[in-house]
Design goal:
The protein is mainly α. It has two domains: about 220 residues, no CATH class; about 60 residues, Alpha-Beta Plaits. The protein contains 15 helices and three strands.
Amino acid sequence: MRLARKWFQAICFFLVNGFWGFPFTGTIYQGPMKIICSPGLNCYSCPSSTAFCPIGALQQLLLNIRFSIQSGQYYFGGFVLGSIGMIGAVFGRFVCGWACPFGFFQELLYKLSSRKLSIPKLFNWLKYVIFFLLVILFPLIFVSKAGMGQPWFCKYVCPAGTFQAGIPMLILDPNLRGAIGWLFVNKLTIALGFTFWSVFSSRPFCRVACPLGAFYALFSRWQLIRLQLNEENCTECGACHKVCPVEIKFNETPNSGECVNCMKCMTEACAFDAIFVEVAGFPMFGPDLGKTNKCLLPRRKI
């Protein structure tokens, strides 16, 4: 399962970044596939990107609302909201564990040999603050005289945008290098900071600052596909705690919004068939699914 997930992550990266003719064209892809929503964080302005970023699209929708109202153009943006809402409702944070290019990048960095550090749980709330302030409120509130807002997260924070769009475009177009200022330096510092942190802690950006992860986490209790716990089989041995890349205790919080659904707990840790994949309320995948494990070990707290 571990190898299958890595292959799936790599395939997803190339599917949403499939335009490799950009070194010859010197421009970003603007073809018909650009209307497709990338499930994970993937910069629209990346030269190879063939899909739009959910967070970038949501900000663009919100920052234009007041301008549209002032100019007498009323629209809802149903395509954007419908796309990201559908992905969240069906998969939730399965996207984070299986299809997000930047999450995959962090996982590869974490494999480097180093001392590994835990991330305080309090930091997990920061991504929700970033989502509600930088992605939703600021584009709506802070607008120009014409009524136009700014994509605050993309412009000032997003490390995926720095690596996928900022640096490649500077390489492709030398004319842009003269425009480098404090804004690019700030974003590069943030990107390098999370890159360095990813060597020592598992998926720090996903857990601390990713607004897309915060959005998908809102669906954790109701998403169509999710991991579930068979409480009858669970011995509370704590094996699932040790392998979790986001440091949650699955048997205690099976519907945690922090879970990226990597399924390590199910495939690499649980020896008692206590964890399975549920689809639309029906158990679908899991070792010896539906069988109650008549384990002789007593139920105990670790």
